[in-house]
Amino acid sequence: MAKGGNVRITITLECTSCTQDSVEKKSTGISRYTTRKNRRNTPNRLELKKFCPSCYKHTIHGEIKK
Fold it and tell me: Rounded distance, CA 24 to CA 44, Å?
């Protein structure tokens, strides 16, 4: 039997370089991805290297609050 529920949650990953450049209005938009993570195995904030279409390169995408 499984213990408890809702171990896997859906999170949003946002480009870190776009959010820094958005203050200076250099980028056209903010890249966001959605994924799922296991709360027990990764309790910290998740950071993955993903492709950002507004930066045209692979950048670090960090977990954000909803």
Answer: 30
pLDDT at 58 over 70: yes
Strand order across the 47-52 sheet: 32-38, 8-15, 57-64, 47-52
Grouping H, G, I as helix, E, B as strand and the rest as coil, residue 63 is strand
pLDDT at 21 > cutoff 60: no
- Whether 32 contacts 55, CB under 8 Å: no
Q: Say how far residue 55 (Cα) sits from the centre of its chain.
A: 15
* Residue whose C-alpha is closest to residue 21's, from 43, 54, 66: 54
Residue 1 reports pLDDT greater than 90: no
Question: CA angle 49-56-38, nearest 5°?
Answer: 25
